[in-house]
Structure prediction request, 606 residues.
Amino acid sequence: MCGIVAYVGPKDAAPILLEGLQRLEYRGYDSAGLAVVNRGLKVRKVKGRVADLAAAVPARFKGGLGIGHTRWATHGAPSDVNAHPHLDGAERIAVVHNGILENADEIRAKLVADGVDFVSETDTEVLAHLIARAVKETGTLADAVRTALKAVVGTYGIAVVDAERPGEVVVARNGSPIVIGIGEKEMFAASDVAALVRYTRQVVHLEDGELAVLKADGFHTFTMDARETAKVPLTVDWDAGHYDTGGYEHYLLKEINEQPETVARTLRGRIDDRFHIAHLGGLNLTPHETRAFRRVKIIGCGSAYYSGQIGAQLIEELARIPADAEPASEFRYRNPVVEHDTLYVAISQSGETYDTLAAVQELKRKGGRVLGIVNTVGSAIARECDGGIYLHAGPEVSVASTKAFTSTAVAFALLALHFGRVHDLSPADGRRICEGLRRLPEQIREILGREEEIAALARKYADRPSMMFVGRVRGYPVAREGAQKLKEISYVHAEAYPASELKHGPLALIGPDMPTVAVVPDDELLDKNLTTLGEIRARGGQVLMVGHRMAEAKLADDCIVVPKNEVELDPILLTIPLQLFAYHAAVALGRDVDKPRNLAKSVTVE
Ligand code: AGP
Prediction:
């Protein structure tokens, strides 16, 4: 949620921290701040965006050690005072924190009783006071941080500096990511590699329960009980260019337009034309083990969960293995029964979503076999899983997920093909799916070529207070994702329902003020879907149909015709116009497309 950056080295920290915070702003954006060490602490923090912070930082803000933060409020409203870094009373220790400290109120009460004055409403401030107390006794910042962290319960990614130690920064992780960047005689840390790639592509991920001391000439990592740990640096594939808008007005539009290439990357090297199978080297499953699974359970949050619904349908259709998807955030809290013959699949673009990570950890604790479908290489969820599929979709910066969604659905198609061919999917059907997958990038390009037509429809409907999205079976997850995109970036209320459920309640909402987006693939349920369109229009509701058959367009008020693929793969293509629809509706309404209100890209808190 929040973003953290830290720097120690020969350069001035402030410009590096500000640049890094800009890269992380998608993680949280209600306030920002930084501290540098130079004969004491210099601190600036503001309610607002990183640009507001940059404007508040004076030209002479020198110092080669610093920490920065961009906040997504949890404890205390967005304000200058609640912005991080937080300091102790003597202004010696500065802390930036991502996560939630559950026993902060309790600790605060004890500290207040001891005469400590608090200035903010945040949970983080307790850490600054605890570390300041401990450092007087332990003598080293690392030991003081360890001592303080032992007193707190909750999640954190933190970076801490001590005005009396101008050469080191201490970072620690428990549930919120911290990545160390290794430079030439300089070291960095951040909550995401996005903040680091301009300076270095050599990184090290901290594990939960690990801390690190960074100095300009190196770093060392250790556990909460002070045991040294060994780390092997990874090289990040993505460079700074991947984090630019590339000439598009918004990251979202760039990422929507990248999909022919990102889908091709997810497929690259994974289709075998000889046996019509998928090569998925990272699964770490023998055919024998694969055959032993009787069920597949898919978990993820938000759009990742909806792409999991597409995945469950693909696995059932192609492999005939019962499969279903469930929000990870629900799954982890209901004490799930973990079965040895069920394969669990966790989905995450960021690889850091706390609810999904916690669900994976719960599954692992109970002996479940978990695969990850993840975009971010080396992320916590990827590391926690027994095997999986990387999406290779490149960094997704805009808060609303688009290219990761389609790549996840494509990864599921490969997984379903693989399972299907290990079970009873015929070579002919395998070939049909392989050929269908190969057609996807070009067909996506074709849909993107109709952007103006879709934009005009978005402008036509954008002023409605509410929209219904409906679909049957394959169309239903597409409708859910379409509604999700519209509500999160345009703030237009959107409800998604199975088309078959309409007459069991929500039909009462239908009328001139509630248009319906109907996802109507050309499959065996076409006639039933067309009947639904008739029912909606008979009640005065307008229909925007997204489907395949031009002839049926007359049954709707408006229509977006999408190229046809194999029925199992059609949901992937039907999603694309709804992304463009949501984008252009949001633009028409003047929304902050890439950073919608109240949301953050990586939800690393419960
Ligand atoms: C998608 O548009 C949303 N921003 C959100 O639902 C997202 O998909 C969800 O938070 C899961 O994120 P993850 O894929 O990084 O785990």
Observations:
- The chain has a mean pLDDT of 94.
- DSSP finds 18 helices and 27 strands in the chain.
- The longest strand covers residues 31-37.
- The longest helix spans residues 427-448.
